[in-house]
Design a protein that fits this description.
CATH architecture: 3-Layer(aba) Sandwich
Strand content: 15-25%
Distance between the termini: 38 Å
Largest sheet: 7 strands, mixed
Number of helices: 5
Radius of gyration: 16 Å
Helix content: 25-40%
CATH topology: Aminopeptidase
Structural class: alpha+beta
CATH superfamily: Gcn5-related N-acetyltransferase (GNAT)
């Protein structure tokens, strides 16, 4: 991946997520060296980056950490295309984190994933801080194509905590 492409991806990331949901530029770029981490992009015919999907590939499941579309081209089906292609590329379960459905925007996001076949799991979950000095972030786990059992959820959460967030498997206990 070119330096320019990564800069464009990070710019979309910063425009799309609160600081509490993204790593620093250096930490995010360092993930490119991790064999479990992947970036998928969608560009227009002229090569301009329109959106990206950042994911982790594990033996048991796949985890979508970020998906975002350039603010100039939102609403054109790019996010749906990226996610649909990602889902179709493997028969492994797909997990992602969403904010609890407290407001209209959060409910719309959950609805977007529901329309793609994701299910909202009803287990307590927190995202460990991505930057020093930040607090845990209460989130929900959505899964495709079906809900997780408690045993699956606990096993998948432990893997997310140790591999993605680099915290102990029993975090936050």
């Amino acid at each position: 991946m070119s330096h320019t492409t990564f800069n464009e991806i990070f710019a979309i990331m910063e425009a799309s997520f609160p600081v509490s949901e993204i790593r620093t530029f250096q930490e995010q770029k360092a993930l490119l060296e991790n064999p479990d981490y992947r970036l998928y992009t969608e560009c227009d015919p002229k090569g301009k980056l329109m959106g990206f999907l950042a994911a982790w590939e594990f033996a048991e499941f796949r985890f979508v950490e970020h998906i975002a579309v350039n603010p100039e081209t939102r609403g054109g089906g790019i996010g749906k295309k990226l996610m649909s292609e990602y889902i179709a590329a493997s028969d492994k379960p797909v997990l992602l984190e969403v904010e609890p459905p407290a407001g209209e925007l959060e409910q719309r996001r959950i609805g977007f994933y529901n329309r793609l076949g994701f299910q909202l799991n009803n287990f307590d979950y927190v995202q460990p801080p991505l930057r020093p000095g930040q607090a845990d972030l209460p989130l929900c786990i959505m899964t495709y194509p079906q809900l997780l059992s408690l045993e699956e959820f606990n096993r998948f959460r432990k893997l997310l905590y140790t591999k993605v967030y680099k915290v102990p498997a029993d975090y936050p206990h």
